[in-house]
């Protein structure tokens, strides 16, 4: 029995059952199914009430068209939480369930040749005058020139069999190339689930849909003992319905196919910055892949037309997505990744990398036809091949959803154009219209939508930090001024978000990572200058990450190193192996640490340095910390015109050359040498504490501790006299008490000298400098001379002294990074005394 209370069989062969008979097991399973049915009925009643139907609200029934938007919103809320998702079985797949794909012959043998001078349009096959007018509507605007538009219509007419405008024209992958799918399942008991009732407002429309699918050969009669649920959802147009089969019981006994489609962000990256793009959508894609007859009974469901079963791949079955994605990828494998990258049933087409711009601002055209630009003709040729391959395999694309050539297309939630990619207008509009959040669920929903724009906004996480704080476990929800301000600022940033483009590899222009951080977050962005016009910047990505409480307490040098490590590790996929990389940051401490591997004060920092040196190769550009950060995106910045050269090894040895340093402003001071700040990197590794011949607070605490210990000794002695212990036990208790009391009375025992031999030379040098620092702080002048007018040794001394503070009573303290705590500095001749007292009296 799983977490949801359902019974399932974990073996593929029958085994002996000691606890249940077959009839008992079936009865138990059906009982659990009935419980699930009752829960589903409650959910359905809530849905009907939201949709405004007779059963739910007892109001007058309205037409579907009048309730389109309300029902779309209602359906949109019914996505299944991850916690309720049914997981398939992970196991070895028997050979008989192996998926076969084998396209024979040459799909391009009959490829029509694209004309340079296209003829006037003439209807051909499925492509009629009416459909031509609708296609022109899909390609509205003046992006396509008249001759290019004629070429587009010629291409669609010539490849008309690759398109379908209704169910009667829908194709099907040829069985000789794609044998029907056999659903792999483990041993199980058939399920019988009561179907959802069809609301009266959509009853007629649903019946028409079912009848069309019967006529198209998608459904066929069934008399099996299985019964699954099904329901309808609203399509993107807000009116049309789509039937979805709820095959949770089947998913629970299916052997999983672990394939995945490509990540959406990565997919959109490949279509940004292209001269033009196109997009094709398979016509009801799953209906184009046949299901084996031996598996069709598993999909049986009850309808007004009786029991039916699916003939094609079920929408709602756990393995449908990876199987169909692999089918489309197999058909177009020779066009991937140069010209397309399918995403399940969507086939976007990549245009050329450039529009072949001329010096006068025009575009290169065909020699035989100046009315067709070169990049459009190349794109049409690529589209022609893709259509031919799909037609040869038996598949069809949806005619009403086809975009052959456009300046901008929408892919997986991103608008991709020649300028780059950015979230769609619909996505941004939803975020901008979002109101105040009433609970943690609302906050998570808002952040889940806004995070789509994360890579287009500088310091996203830092801005959204108050909202992320509300999502933490154990934090009570309170929507106040700070949270409202964070939401509004995020909305404004999203409204103004940048287009981003792909990095160009290879390129004479380096990829630049600009890294900055605050006390609680690391922010960075990537950009690359245009090869033709270096003053033009193409932004690649923005990102930010929150530091945890421990990282926020790091010293300044350590925090600078960890922020670089975090940024490089986050972009490991993009930057690893890049030989033309520049890291733009305040390198005051970084330069010394990166060029001195193995000399850091602890193993953790050494590992960070080793990780950076081993995995990345870059030039370090030093920029002053003030005024630097991802918020100044619109500012054009000077970039050195020098060509940087560096010999790289394979990364396996850490004996390579030092990192190259470039300063943005030659007048800026050089980064500090490691020796000047090595003791500041990790202040936990030593105890540099000074000055204080007497410590009244510590002495009082030690005296109080001694008094408690003496009282415990007296109580043990008294216990030994009044209890009936054996004589040997009494002697032992008394002896231990005498020894403890003698140790407390030995206040003047000789102390071991403070061991200077094991300390570093820089630590001993700093100890020797402490009296001078205290003396300088006591007589510190109010008006200091500018640092650039001081000698190098004086400037070094003042920088060291700035890390200390002298109290009014003459105590010397050391500042620790951004922490509010100060470290008391103790002279070396008092350190062993304090350590001994702390160990003996407070450590045990």
UniProtKB/TrEMBL annotation:
Top-level taxonomic group: Eukaryota
Keywords assigned by UniProt, alphabetized: Aspartyl protease, Endonuclease, Hydrolase, Nuclease, Nucleotidyltransferase, Protease, RNA-directed DNA polymerase, Transferase
GO BP term, example: proteolysis
Start-end of Basic and acidic residues biased regions: 755-766
Pfam family, one: RT_RNaseH
GO terms for MF: aspartic-type endopeptidase activity; endonuclease activity; RNA-directed DNA polymerase activity
Reverse transcriptase RNase H-like domain location: 508-611
Matches recorded under InterPro entries: DNA/RNA_pol_sf, Rev_trsase/Diguanyl_cyclase, RT_RNaseH, Viral_Replic_Matur_Polypro
Region (Disordered): 742-766
Keyword Transferase: yes
SUPFAM superfamilies: DNA/RNA polymerases
Biased composition (Acidic residues): 742-754
Protein name, per record: Reverse transcriptase RNase H-like domain-containing protein
